[in-house]
Amino acid sequence: MDPYLKDEDDDDSEEIEDMTIRPMDAVIVCARNEDDVSHLEVWIYEDSDEGDSNMYVHHDIIISAFPLCTAWLDCPLKGGEKGNFIAVGSMEPSIEIWDLDIIDEVQPCLVLGGAVEKKTKKGKKKSKYMEGSHTGEVLGLAWNKEYRNILASASADKQVKIWDVAAGKCNITMEHHEGKVQAVAWNHHVPQVLLTGSFDRSVVMKDGRVPSHSGFKWSVTAEVECLAWDPHTEYSFVVSLEDGTIRGYDIRAAKSDPSSESKPSFTLHAHDKAACTLSYNPAAPNLLATGSMDKTVKLWDLSNNQPSCVASRNPKAGAVFSISFSQDSPFLLAIGGSKGKLGVWDTLSETAVSGKFGNYSQLNRPKT
After folding, report:
1. CA-CA distance, 180 to 156, in Å (whole number)?
2. Taking the CB of the first residue and of the last residue of the chain, which one, N or C, has fewer CB atoms within 10 A?
3. C-beta separation of 88 from 95 below 8 A
């Protein structure tokens, strides 16, 4: 049994079988709201040798507010070499961090920021924000895989914050956007470099070592929905927009002069409605997935900055809010949408995908 799962009263062998997480299992965490109750669900996706797959909820966690974003992190907040935690941004100004290895957990192990109610002399309730807290909803989160105690957050209060989760405090606050900040993303190769995207129709690249520097700015045609750095090169990123377009940029073409415009490497009219989410494949270069309010998920080959659609499907999830390729099983794509049901697309089952990218399918596979 997984040594981190602390549930001591299980004697039933079938239940123990279900609770056991095997090396080849994919673990998916999704946040959802149902009947005004918000919770995290930890799902197990099993793939058998016969090609059959099975998916079930391993355990769930009730959370205090409507979830808007999540970020997994392995910073050992409770000692040891690694942990298994998820940070949750919500309609509240606080960020909750939950231990995913504990079943029936009722309290987050850490809360960053937030407001506390205090009574005035006249008996009225007044909210006071904790030191370093956001003052609006937390719309985006990004964990730094190199500096494992560092978490970036984006908020409706127009601020970007960098937190030290080990110390439980905010180290840096940046206010370089004029609208709500929707998305943040750390560069995979230069881990001090942070990308931020806003409702003010701009993307800004900042260096956490010199946060006072104005950074580099790109203007876009609509409100930013999502950002992602290309994991296969340090120079490229993509941004998805409220008007359904995806833009790719090469930071080597960035201009420090704000009045001179850096042109995108490509502009892709990917969807008919807002392109809410995107995910680069961690194993196959140039393979990008996008999801939209138009209820579709599409797979693109970005080779030579000339995007072509290699597969498209309606996953019956409703408006698609979130997609993510698995790190361990790179061609499994998790999908979440307005219907509140988790979907998984084995993208290698698409002939065009296996034909173009199938040679990358054995990379990153976990060892049995």
Report:
1. 4
2. C
3. yes
Q: CA 181 to CA 29: how far, in whole Å?
A: 24
Tokens 């062998």 locate to 13
Q: What is the pLDDT of residue 366?
A: 43
Report the SS3 class of residue 201: coil
What mean pLDDT comes out for the span 257-277? 89
Q: What is the amino acid identity at position 176? A: H
Report pLDDT digits (tens) over 97-140.
Answer: 999 999 988 999 999 999 887 766 666 777 899 999 999 999 99
| Angle, vertex CA 234, rays to CA 233 and CA 236, nearest 5 | 75
3-class secondary-structure state, position 266: strand
CB contact burial 315-349 (16+ within 10 A = b; e otherwise): bebebbbbbbbbeebbbbbbbbbeeeebbbbebbe
Q: d(Cα 72, Cα 143) in Å, to the nearest integer?
A: 7
35-43: long-range pairs with CB below 8 Å, 24+: 37/62, 38/62, 38/63, 38/64, 38/65, 38/66, 38/67, 38/90, 39/63, 40/67, 40/70, 40/86, 40/88, 40/98, 41/342, 42/100, 43/342
Annotate 7-24 with three-state secondary structure.
CCCCCCHHHHHHHCCCCC
Nearest to 39 by CA among 93, 90, 83: 90
Span 267-295, average pLDDT? 98
| Residue 40 tokens, joined | 């995290």
| Beta carbons within 8 Å of 348's beta carbon, 6+ residues apart | 331, 354, 358, 361
Amino acid letter, 105: E
Task: Please report, as a single letter, which amino acid is at residue 177.
Answer: H
Q: Based on C-alpha coordinates, what's the Rg of the chain? A: 21
Q: Which helix (DSSP H) or strand (DSSP E) does residue 291 occupy?
A: strand 287-291
Query: Residue 159 corresponds to which tokens in the numbers above?
Result: 């601020």
Burial of 159 (0-12, 13-18, 19+ CB in 10 A): buried
SS3 state at 304: helix
Alpha helices in the chain (DSSP H): 13-19, 351-357
Q: How many helices (H) and strands (E) does the chain have?
A: 2, 28
Written as six digits, the tokens of 156 are 């409706």
